[in-house]
């Protein structure tokens, strides 16, 4: 997994070319992180012996609480981050269900 490619820090951008290059670099890094996150969903599907264990509402609540706290500490919009992560967690659960089913055919 690589780090975010070197680019101009947001506060130092002088034009839209620099802004776009920075956004593109962050997007590539986020995709790499999502690959790793979904790898953990593969592992969870492999490890969980019961399909009913795939959806864990207590864990989902914990994940959302963790990211809300991190967003608040970073001074970025908590409500937006919570919405994004809710979608990410739901997509991860759907993926894990599919993978759980596929490896047990």
TrEMBL record:
GO terms for biological process: chorismate metabolic process; salicylic acid biosynthetic process. It holds the Pfam family CM_2. PROSITE patterns: CHORISMATE_MUT_2. Residues 10-100 form the Chorismate mutase domain. GO terms for molecular function: carbon-oxygen lyase activity; chorismate mutase activity. Substrate binds at residues 20, 37, 48, 96. It comes from the Bacteria. Its EC number is 5.4.99.5. It is an enzyme of class 5 (isomerase). Keywords: Isomerase. SMART domains: CM_2. This is chorismate mutase. The lineage of its organism: Bacteria, Pseudomonadati, Pseudomonadota, Alphaproteobacteria, Sphingomonadales.
């Amino acid at each position: 997994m690589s780090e975010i490619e070197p680019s101009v820090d947001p506060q130092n951008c002088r034009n839209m070319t620099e802004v776009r290059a920075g956004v593109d670099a962050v997007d590539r890094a986020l995709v790499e992180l999502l690959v790793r996150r979904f790898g953990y969903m593969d592992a969870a599907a492999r490890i969980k012996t019961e399909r009913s264990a795939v959806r864990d509402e207590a864990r989902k609540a914990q994940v959302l609480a963790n990211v809300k706290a991190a967003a608040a500490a970073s001074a970025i919009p908590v409500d937006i981050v919570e919405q994004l992560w809710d979608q990410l967690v739901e997509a991860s659960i759907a993926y894990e269900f599919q993978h759980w089913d596929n490896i047990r055919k």
